[in-house]
Every structure is written in structure tokens, then in C-alpha cells.
Design brief:
Elements (H helix, E strand, L loop, with lengths): L7 E5 L6 H8 L5 E3 L2 E3 L13 E3 L2 H9 L3 E7 L2 E6 H9 L3 E5 L2 H10 L4 E6 L3 H11 L4 H15 L7 E4 L3 H16 L7 H11 L3
Parallel strand pairs: 1-7, 1-8, 2-7, 3-4, 8-9
Antiparallel strand pairs: 3-6, 5-6
Helix pairs in contact: 1-7, 5-6
């Protein structure tokens, strides 16, 4: 049998829920690839085109917008960031799963562009634990931590737009739960098969 098409997995959640760490673990599995974003910002020291980002000009980025070649994009500090649709589709067509670590608003854009995408929302065990994790980073002021917590509450309001939720109380368990979701999705009956099944059922009933 020829390989089946891969699936696009969107992993979102508030800052401090462990998105990056969980994605790194999932990407160790054969058949999973990370979605590399396109940006107009300049590469930093050590960054390579096609590895961290696809570094392009503003003109090339806006041309991709006009061609509707982004699953999602946004402007951050005068620079564009986006997920190129054509590159993702090529990987999916080769039977590779594509993992996209993105914020909630970006995830909703992807859902609109590709309804078949699987959206997974990561949650902290509690807001108190999320605060503790942010404080333990030691990289942000109390004011910034409060802003992140406020944003987290706003993001969690959209959890109903996602397909699955995973609570990251224990990293190993959370990773196992994400893997279980992916295994279940790999066994999902494709939508294009369902009309055939319905037709067969109608024929059996003599309709």
C-alpha cells in the first residue's frame, strides 16, 4: 500500500505550559517534522535559512500573502511571521506529520485555512502553578508575569475551538497523552471514505 497522507498538528497554550519542550519530545518520533515559519526579520547569529526560519524580504512575504500561501501570519514588532502553506502541504503529501507550535490566535487561523488540522491545547495544572513556573524562569519582571497570566486567561477562553486538551502537570505524562492523540488520529476513517460506507448501507437496506 502507498503511504497515507500526514496530518497537521497545532499545539497551542499559554506561555509556561511547556509547548516547546513537548514539541521537542514529539519530534523525536519517526514521521514527525516541525513546521518552519517564514519571517521578514534579519537572521540572528547562528541561525540558518530553512532551519530556524525562512528569512525573506518584505516583498516576498507580501507576495505570498497575495497568493494566499499562508496558513496563518501575523506582524510582530514591524516584522512578518507566517506558516507557508505550500511547504506544509508538500510534507503532508509525503506522509509526514507536521507539528506547528503556535499561539491560540494563529491556531484559529490554521483551523480556518485547513479544517482537517488537529488542534491540541496545552493547559497548566492551575494558574497558581503557571505563575510559579513563570517566576522560576527568573527572566521577567512581576509586571510582565501579570501580563502573561492575564493573556493566559484570555487564551484559555478559546479552548472550545480546539479538538483536544492536555494538562501538563507531569512532562512525561503530557507527552504520552499527545502521542496517544496522534495515534488515535492516525486511525481515523478519512472523510472521503464515509460517503462510500453510507452508500453501501443504503444499498443493503434496498433504498
Amino acid at each position: 500500500m502507498s503511504h497515507s497522507r500526514g496530518r497537521l498538528y497545532v499545539i497551542s497554550g499559554p506561555s509556561g505550559t511547556g509547548k516547546g519542550t513537548i514539541c521537542k519530545e514529539i519530534l523525536k518520533d519517526i514521521g514527525n517534522e516541525f513546521s518552519v515559519s517564514m519571517t521578514t526579520r534579519e537572521p540572528r547569529e547562528g541561525e540558518l535559512h530553512g532551519r530556524e526560519y525562512f528569512f525573506v524580504s518584505h516583498e516576498e512575504f507580501t507576495e505570498n500573502i497575495s497568493k494566499n500561501n499562508f496558513l496563518e501570519y501575523a506582524t510582530v514588532f514591524d516584522n512578518y511571521y507566517g506558516t507557508p502553506k505550500d511547504i506544509v502541504l508538500k510534507k503532508l503529501d509525503k506522509g509526514r506529520n507536521v507539528i506547528l507550535d503556535i499561539d491560540v490566535q494563529g491556531g484559529l487561523q490554521v483551523r480556518e485555512a485547513m479544517p482537517e488540522a488537529v488542534l491540541i491545547f496545552l493547559l497548566p495544572p492551575s494558574l497558581a502553578e503557571l505563575r510559579r513556573r513563570l517566576e522560576n524562569r527568573g527572566t521577567e519582571t512581576p509586571e510582565k508575569i501579570e501580563k502573561r497570566l492575564s493573556k493566559a486567561v484570555d487564551e484559555i477562553k478559546f479552548i472550545g475551538e480546539y479538538d483536544y486538551m492536555v494538562i501538563n502537570n507531569d512532562l512525561e505524562t503530557a507527552v504520552d497523552n499527545v502521542r496517544s492523540i496522534m495515534k488515535a488520529e492516525a486511525s481515523r476513517i478519512p472523510e472521503k471514505v464515509l460517503p462510500i460506507i453510507r452508500q453501501y448501507e443504503q444499498e443493503q437496506k434496498g433504498e
